Amino acid sequence: MIIKLKNNTDKHEIGYLTSALAALGLSSRTEDGGRCIFADSREAPSESTVGKIKELCERECVEEIRVFHDPFLCCGRGYRKERRKIKVSDGVTIGGENFCLIAGPCSVESLDSLTEIAQRVKSSGADILRGGAFKPRTSPYEFQGLHEEGIKLLCEVGRYLKIPVVSEIMSENQLELFADVDVIQVGARNMQNFELLRALGKSSKPILLKRGMSAEITEFLMSAEYIMSAGNENVILCERGIRTFEPRTRNTLDLSAVTLVHELSCLPIITDPSHASGHSPLVKPLALASAAAGADGIMTEVHSDPKNAKSDGVQSITTDEFDSLAHDIREVRAAVKNIYCN
Ligand code: PEP
Ligand code: MN
């Protein structure tokens, strides 16, 4: 349930309402400078409780009340039926009619290689340039990224080519470094780093939240709740494959997540066929399947010379392959658009 209060409601009135809700067995918290009270109960409130809540909400300070039972208070569809569209920059929005293409190398390697890849993916139609600077590698002996220098190069290339950029943050202490990054990515390994999620909730930048490799959909959405309930509603979800018994792929792309997330939540969801497959020949088919399943976009790893990439070369497609993927995915999207965007 969400109770919206009028502007300038005094804090004694807010205190009165929250204690009255507590007496009805509802835990509550206030947000939006005290203008909203979110009240939650573990179970659907009984009819008589709902009646008492409504009485309570006849008070002068209440502007609007919405009663619903949805564990996903912020990202669920109980409160907000319509899907969210997340604005990334003047020309780029994720969700709704727009299908978003995010492309670029796994990690930023050098100014020259990044510029070359970025020019190519942009001219093929990429909306956002990706590039990791802090790399969460399985082995501490593998390339860990260029760190601050990588962020600087990514932002420089983005500015030069006028394309927004996305990069992965590993800790809340790095937030200042990400001041010029347009979209902050939370990687699969940090999906349940709740301190980081809360800190990102204080930012107003769009957050690309990737699904943990063993996370259930409920856990995935609850992580989005951490960010949103802390104040940042600009969350984009990313299905990047989950661990299964199949060793021939790095992960298994769970396309049902796309439909389930749309059913349960107002947030856009994209897929990452590169990390989902770990095998470049699978990237295009999985990307096209994502578009056919109604995803709001895809993120792919692209390199001019995948064999010599410093990370994830085996799953990186070439710039030519991305060009062909971008062309074909637009056709798939056009064919299914009416099904998903009514
Ligand atoms: C990435 O996108 O660079 C990445 C490391 O992905 P994931 O967190 O999904 O493994
Ligand atoms: Mn990678």
Which secondary structure elements does this structure contain, and how are they paired or packed?
Blueprint (H helix, E strand, L loop, with lengths): L1 E4 L5 H13 L3 E5 L4 E5 L6 H10 L5 E5 L19 E2 L5 E2 L5 E5 L6 H14 L3 E3 L17 H14 L3 E5 L13 E4 L7 H8 L5 E4 L6 H13 L5 E5 L16 H9 L4 E3 L1 H5 L2 H13 L4 E5 L17 H22 L2
Parallel strand pairs: 7-8, 7-14, 8-9, 9-10, 10-11, 11-12, 12-13
Antiparallel strand pairs: 1-3, 1-4, 2-3, 5-6
Helix pairs in contact: 3-4, 3-10, 5-6, 9-10
Bound molecules: phosphoenolpyruvate and manganese (II) ion.
The site of manganese (II) ion has 5 residues, from loops.
Question: What would you say this structure looks like, in words?
Answer:
By secondary structure, the chain is an alpha/beta fold. It is 35% helix and 17% strand. The chain is built from ten helices and 14 strands. It has an eight-stranded parallel β-sheet. Helix 3 (111-124) packs across helix 4, helix 3 packs across helix 10 and helix 9 runs parallel beside helix 10. The chain is elongated and about 65 Å long. It starts with a strand and ends with a helix. The relative contact order is 0.12. Residues 106, 275, 301, 311-312 line the site of manganese (II) ion.
